[in-house]
Specification:
6 helices, 1-acyl-sn-glycerol-3-phosphate acyltransferase, Plipid/glycerol_acylTrfase, acyltransferase activity
Length: 223
């Protein structure tokens, strides 16, 4: 009910202020497990995608965001759960496996799970090589993968600015990708890579971004 209330209140405001252009929402399968695989340009991407998706979509969120104390902490946890965040521990050796397991649980229940294949926001505007988590989840669960292109979100809140700006924002959902031809091959690293690369090429085609076949490095990381 809280999720429906948030959508009821937030969606009209987002559409009135930012007027996002949404294309291809009807391509998202109406039922069954689905992975939404968007490019990642800004911190607002997750919230925007959650609001315009025709189905409720779940994303990973830091577990500490859900453990605040007092009324404020409980309200924050309830809000994050309502808008689709799934708590997951980070910063330890098992974090990656825990994240995939959380995603698999959502998909096994027939839900929609959102994952950024690049693993981090693009700082140079290009689309970078995808990590194979998206391929692993698709192969393990049989979920269809819907590539998503987010355009203009990086202009809503430029680095160093405190208040959002007006910018033309587009969210385009691509045709669902079906990888059932690889049934039983989810243990193969080569197949996981092939699936992930196909997803990335589909995102690149939608977004028009230059594709770089290297993982994105954050400032300060070793090349």
């Amino acid at each position: 009910m809280l999720y429906q209330l948030i959508r009821l209140l937030a969606v009209p405001v987002v559409k009135l202020i930012y007027r996002p252009e949404v294309r291809g929402a009807e391509r998202v399968p109406a039922y069954g497990p689905v992975i939404l695989a968007p490019n990642h340009r800004a911190a607002v991407d997750t919230t925007l995608l959650a609001l315009v998706s025709p189905r409720r979509v779940r994303f990973l969120g830091k577990a500490e965001y859900f453990t605040g104390k007092g009324l404020r902490g409980r309200l924050m946890a309830a809000f994050l759960d309502a808008v689709g965040f799934v708590p997951v521990e980070r910063g330890n050796a098992k974090a990656g496996l825990a994240a995939l397991e959380s995603g698999r649980k959502v998909l096994d229940e027939g839900g929609v799970f959102g994952i950024y294949p690049e693993g981090t926001r693009s700082l140079d505007g290009r689309l970078h090589r995808g990590h194979t988590g998206v391929g692993s989840l698709a192969l393990a669960t049989g979920a269809k993968v819907v590539p998503v292109a987010l355009t203009g979100t990086e202009k809503l809140l430029p680095k160093g600015k405190l208040f959002p700006r007006f910018a033309k924002v587009t969210v385009e959902f691509g045709e669902p990708l079906d990888f059932s031809r690889y049934d039983g091959l989810d243990a193969s690293p080569a197949i996981r890579r092939a699936v992930t690369d196909e997803v990335m090429y589909a995102i690149a085609e939608l977004s028009g971004q230059e594709y770089v076949d290297k993982y994105h490095k954050r400032p300060g990381e070793a090349a």
